[in-house]
Amino acid sequence: MVRRLLFTSVALAPLVILIHYVFHPTETLEFVLAAAALIPLAWLIGEATEHAAEHTGAGIGGFLNATFGNAPELIIALFAVHAMEFEVVRGSLSGSVIGNLLLVLGFSLLFGGRGEIDRQSSFLALALVAFSTLLLLVVAIPGWDGDPERSSLADLSIPVSIVLLIAYVGLTYYSLRRHAALHIASDEEIKGWSLRLALVVLGAATVVTALVAEILVGSINTFADDSGVSEFFLAAVVIAIVGNAAEHGGAVVVAARGKIKLAAEIALASSAQVAVFLIPAVALLALLIEPLALAFREVEIIALGVSVVVSAVLLADGRSSRLKGLILIAVYIGIATMFFVAGER
Q1: Who has greater pLDDT, 336 or 268?
Q2: DSSP for 183-226?
Q3: What φ, ψ does residue 116 adopt, rounded to 5°?
Q4: 270 vs 67: CA distance, rounded Å
Q5: What does residue 231 show for φ and ψ, rounded to 5 degrees?
Q6: Burial zone of 121 (CB within 10 Å; 0-12 exposed, 13-18 middle, 19+ buried)
Q7: 5: confidence class by pLDDT, cuts 50, 70, 90
Q8: What is the torsional sign of CA 128, 63, 217, 154?
Q9: What is the DSSP secondary-structure string of 7-62?
Q10: In sequence order, which residues have a C-beta less than 8 Å from that of residue 74 and are 6 or more positions away?
Q11: Angstrom distances, CA of residue 250 to CA of 57, 111, 262, 270
Q12: What's the per-residue H, E or C state across 71-118?
């Protein structure tokens, strides 16, 4: 039922593009429609990626899941870089990590109830996020004084990004391979697609996502002005949730089936992927467009640290419960409120 609804709602994306170029609606309406259209697109990219990974080896499968699984966030970030909306870029990236650690994991535990989780895998993912947060301080702290977009910070972001990518390759290869294999093996509803079909769908969905993301980024200023909400909040909360829609839904569905260990791994592995793969990838790819400084705000660094600590404390015993899920969700609501109050830089 859910899969059928998502397949049907994919039609919203070309409709949004048509409305944008033919009817020219208000940018506020465009933002809402584009955000809604990205949700089924994110799911479709995840679906096509997993089917493609079934036809490849573990290494290529893990690469596909890591790369295209984060395609919506990557595309949104690069369009925001092109629009020189650097706060939107950083906000969407930090919000994605926090959303996976607290919101996705929280709902997974809430729907999954009592069960066991893989402590080793969980703490590896949390360690990667913690490592990324500490390393980002190298750029973030100087950015708290003066212009955070100055070229020296963009230059400093390059070696930081390279170190993060090295850590990603060295420490998460096994975790990604295992995550992909478990996810594919556990999804009983998946009917195999041919590799050609999977790649065609993946390519088409990525192109459409790029078009919709351009509309989303182009309308965020107007939506922020009309709604009275800061662009930073929209990026760190709304856009981050939309970009992670596939992981949100997938983890919760898996948890509801009683596979809480897998659901927790999806959430935690996704947060680690964003922290040590997507963030540096965006920074390095941005060099082709406009240099990006990874000068995250104090409130973002604090939120990342709190997310890691709270998750680590709750998962320390290797057990899940609905109460722990509620705590994680409550902490996320608190952080989202903090982002709302923080406003623009």
Answers
A1: 336
A2: HHHH-TT--PPPHHHHHHHHHHHHHHHHHHHHHHHHHHHHHHHH
A3: -105, 150
A4: 11
A5: -60, -35
A6: buried
A7: low
A8: positive
A9: HHHTTHHHHHHHIIIII---HHHHHHHHHHHHHHHHHHHHHHHHHHHTTS-HHHHH
A10: 278, 281, 282, 285
A11: 22, 12, 10, 12
A12: HHHHHHHHHHHHCCCHHHHHHHHHHHHHHHHHHHHHHHHHHHCCEECC
The length of the chain in residues reads: 345
pLDDT digits (tens, 9 = 90+) for 165-195: 998 887 756 555 555 555 444 444 445 788 8
Exposure pattern of 291-330 as b/e (b: 16+ CB <10 Å)? bbbbbbbebbbebbebbbebbbebbeeeebbeebbebbbe
pLDDT at residue number 172: 58
Residue for token digits 């990603």?
168
Write down the pLDDT at residue 181: 53
Return the residue matching tokens 């479709």. 44
| Residue 63, Cβ density class (10 Å: 0-12 exposed, 13-18 middle, ≥19 buried) | middle
Q: What percent of the chain has pLDDT over 90?
A: 55
Higher pLDDT, 299 or 58: 299
Alpha carbon separation from 113 to 4, 126, 155 (Å, rounded): 26, 21, 46
* pLDDT, tens only, 103-126: 999 999 998 888 888 888 889 889
How far apart CA 242 and CA 36 sit, in angstroms, is 8
Bigger pLDDT: 299 vs 43: 299
pTM, full prediction:
0.86
* Residue, of 29 and 170, whose pLDDT is higher: 29
- DSSP class of residue 286? G
- Taking each helix axis as running N to C, give the angle between helix 260-273 and helix 245-256, from 0 to 180 degrees, rounded to the nearest 10: 160
Q: Which residues of 264-289 are buried (b: 16+ CB within 10 A; e: fewer)?
A: bbbbbbbbbbbbbbbbbbbbbebeee
